[in-house]
């Protein structure tokens, strides 16, 4: 089945060298450009919470890199070819094109609702993408790595992949989709993956940061050591796809097609579609962010394909875990799905983004429960951060006409809150660099906790009443707390951009000024004497759960009933 070739594949390894020290050295080294990608989401069904989670995380990373003044290219998009798409379209009574248009637009709408700041949205039905795929295919073919052969095996329609029988469950069920695989025999084109086994082993040995977290690297190394098999890169039975060059009877396998979207997305609309132009526009990618279920495609198939074409490898593939709900896998059959559109409309983008990035240690599986969600959001965003800002601005309005008495840097040297904030800012920076998003959230929240402890300890409300120097001390304390809030708004902006903008606006800044912030603005001393704050308005409403809402409603009805005047008779009226 394998056709040997004497052609030697040349490829660039320099793109992976910066990852040799693991996550930390990868994200702190390199040039001014930072290219990151989400998967191109399959449009057989509308967006789900898993795809939303990946994209929220990618957006937080992109926003942090922009704060570091990197030239960020954040790529997302939709994978629109393959058997499942044609089947889903037929089931809905539409054409594949119509189906893809509707679902692709649903992704764009959801990303807007979630404040996703992507730079490129690629659809694999885009003509420029098709041109890049065909050119890539031809280059791999010319390198002697594509051959034709018959193949018979067990095929998972949902994965769109042939499976080894040893990897299947009872009754040949796919371990991911829990559905029986079907026996198929096809005359297809194959990619000589086995030819690149040693080179892949060398890449992972020399660059252990290429696959993260480290336990995902172990998984990939295990797959490779067990021996790589050539895989089919065309389908004779699928019409909805890109035709194989020089063979209109076959279409290119959906994964061989979709992975090239990371490259074709780099093209500008005005540019001629060519592989070289795309590569010169930002490749290699700094980070592929994916779910662990598609790790094999990104950490084994994709690097080998790039090697064959003589193209540099991405710098890192990061495989995160799955989401569950109340400890159970989500699924329509269980009736426990979490629809992202309804979810964000109910609670708002900041709450959704914060919960999943704070609750889930990035890389591991994570669980959602509404009770835990409401408790965390109320405690962290509404109380710790929101209430601290609101009561501080309230005191400033009451005693200082909402005007800062001093520069935030004046008399702050040696101040315990300033020292604490500076240490926590540095700590948060390191967590963001290491893709430790949950720890970054927790660290920024510690600034809020420190601010609350400080204002409670200083008790400025009491000092204001004493007048004289005590009044001046209280006025300075408010400036110090508000400076901490300014820093929180910047440090938390990758996670909760909307909330951060509201904080910044309350501190008297414009949206234009907020959009221009960089990480170095977290340095203590931004607020100036005479700066006028906005009128205190709650920046984050507390969420009421069902029990609280029922209790509040009952109390309101009882009070209304007690206070209601006796009805007047028609004569009295």
Note down, in words, how this protein is organized.
This protein is of the alpha/beta class. Helices cover 48% and strands 14% of the residues. It contains 21 helices and 16 strands. The strands form four sheets. Strands 3-2-1-12-13-7 form a six-stranded parallel sheet, sandwiched between helices. β4 (146-156) and β5 form a beta hairpin. The longest helix has 31 residues, at 370-400. It is elongated, with a radius of gyration of 28 Å. It starts with 22 loop residues before the first helix and ends in a 10-residue tail after the last helix.
Profile the largest sheet.
6 strands, parallel
Gyration radius (Cα, Å) is 28 Å
Structural class label: alpha/beta
Strand fraction equals 5-15%
The share of residues in helices is 40-55%
Q: How far is it from the N-terminal to the C-terminal residue, by CA?
A: 98 Å
**Whole-number mean pLDDT:** 88
Strand order of the largest sheet: 3-2-1-12-13-7
Sum up the overall morphology in one term.
Answer: elongated
Q: Low-confidence runs (pLDDT<50, min 5 residues)?
A: 1-26, 547-573
How many helical elements? 21
């Amino acid at each position: 089945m394998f056709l040997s070739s004497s052609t030697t594949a040349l490829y660039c390894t320099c793109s992976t060298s910066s990852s040799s020290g693991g996550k930390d050295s990868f994200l702190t080294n390199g040039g001014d450009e930072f290219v990151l990608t989400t998967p191109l989401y399959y449009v057989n069904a509308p967006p789900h919470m898993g795809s939303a989670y990946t994209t929220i995380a990618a957006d937080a990373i992109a926003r942090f890199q922009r704060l570091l003044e990197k030239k960020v290219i954040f790529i997302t998009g939709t994978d629109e070819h393959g058997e499942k798409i044609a089947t889903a379209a037929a089931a809905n009574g539409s054409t594949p094109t119509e189906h893809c248009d509707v679902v692709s637009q649903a992704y764009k709408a959801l990303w807007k609702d979630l404040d996703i700041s992507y730079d490129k949205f690629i659809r694999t039905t885009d003509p420029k993408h098709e041109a890049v795929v065909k050119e890539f295919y031809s280059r791999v073919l010319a390198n002697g790595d594509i051959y034709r052969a018959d193949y018979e095996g067990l095929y998972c329609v949902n994965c769109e992949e042939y499976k080894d029988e040893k990897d299947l469950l009872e009754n040949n069920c796919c371990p991911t989709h829990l559905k029986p695989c079907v026996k198929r025999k096809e005359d297809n084109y194959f990619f000589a993956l086995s030819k690149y086994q040693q080179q892949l082993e060398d890449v992972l040995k020399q660059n252990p940061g290429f696959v993260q977290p480290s336990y995902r690297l172990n998984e990939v190394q295990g797959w490779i050591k067990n021996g790589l098999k050539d895989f089919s890169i065309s389908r004779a039975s699928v019409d909805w796809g890109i035709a194989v060059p020089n063979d209109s009877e076959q279409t290119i396998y959906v994964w061989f097609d979709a992975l090239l979207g990371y490259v074709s997305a780099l093209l500008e609309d005005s540019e001629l579609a060519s592989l070289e132009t795309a590569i010169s526009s930002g490749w290699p990618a700094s980070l592929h962010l994916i779910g662990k279920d598609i790790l094999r495609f990104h950490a084994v198939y994709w690097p080998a394909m790039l090697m064959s074409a003589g193209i540099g490898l991405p710098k890192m593939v990061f495989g995160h875990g799955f989401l569950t709900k109340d400890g159970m896998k989500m699924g329509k059959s269980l009736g426990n799905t979490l629809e992202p559109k309804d979810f964000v409309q109910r609670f708002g983008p900041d709450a959704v983004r914060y919960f999943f990035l704070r609750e889930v240690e990035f890389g591991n599986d994570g669980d959602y429960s509404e009770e835990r969600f409401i408790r965390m959001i109320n405690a962290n965003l509404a109380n710790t951060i929101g209430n601290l800002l609101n009561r501080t601005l309230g005191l400033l309005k009451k005693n200082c006409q909402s005007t800062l008495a001093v520069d935030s840097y004046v008399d702050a040297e040696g101040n315990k809150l300033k020292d604490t904030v500076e240490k926590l800012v540095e700590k948060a920076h390191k967590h963001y660099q290491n893709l430790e998003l949950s720890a970054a959230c927790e660290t920024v929240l510690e600034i809020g906790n420190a601010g609350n402890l400080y204002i409670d300890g200083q008790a400025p409300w009491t000092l204001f009443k004493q007048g004289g120097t005590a009044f001046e001390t209280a006025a300075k304390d408010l400036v110090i707390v508000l400076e901490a809030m300014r820093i929180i708004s910047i440090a938390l902006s990758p996670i909760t951009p909307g909330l951060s903008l509201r904080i910044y606006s309350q501190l008297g800044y414009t949206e234009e000024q907020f959009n221009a912030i960089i990480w170095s603005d977290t340095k203590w001393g931004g607020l100036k004497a005479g700066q006028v704050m906005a009128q205190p308005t709650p920046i984050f409403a507390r969420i009421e759960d069902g029990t609280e809402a029922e209790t509040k409603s009952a109390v309101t009805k009882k009070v209304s009933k007690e206070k209601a005047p006796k009805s007047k008779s028609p004569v009295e009226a």
